[in-house]
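[audit] Reproducing an earlier prediction to check determinism. Same input, same settings, fresh worker. If the tokens differ from the archived copy the diff job will pick it up downstream; this log only records the rerun itself.
[audit] input (134 residues):
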Amino acid sequence: MTKLKTTAAQMVADARARIEEIETADLIAMLDDPNLVIVDIRDVRERQRAGYIPGSFHAPRGMIEFWVDPDSPYFKEVFGQPDKKFVFHCASGWRSALTTATLQDMGFEAAHLKEGFSTWEKQGGPVEHAEPKA
């Protein structure tokens, strides 16, 4: 097996050292802020299985750099809103840490939910569930 130059865990640690991390309770307290945009980067199946934060925007991690880039043919207008605070989240905070660091490198300011969705409901955060497919 090839020895890697760095591990995934080290990449996450390096990302976390240079990005803004928001605790679950703090993000719950921010939910009424009209300038807040919560972006869920989990797979659609994770959202269907576990639910999602009401009002969150779903952006699969594999497309996020393209959706944020105004020069990309895949750009999504939600990311072109000035003066918004974008907070990304995944299930445990690993993918969102890497995503936030990458976006920061691109010049897009954002933060991430430190522990991800895993602690959201346990700490009193509201959760919506998709309607079952007929």
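[audit] rerun output stored. Observation attached for the diff report: The mean pLDDT is 95.
[audit] end
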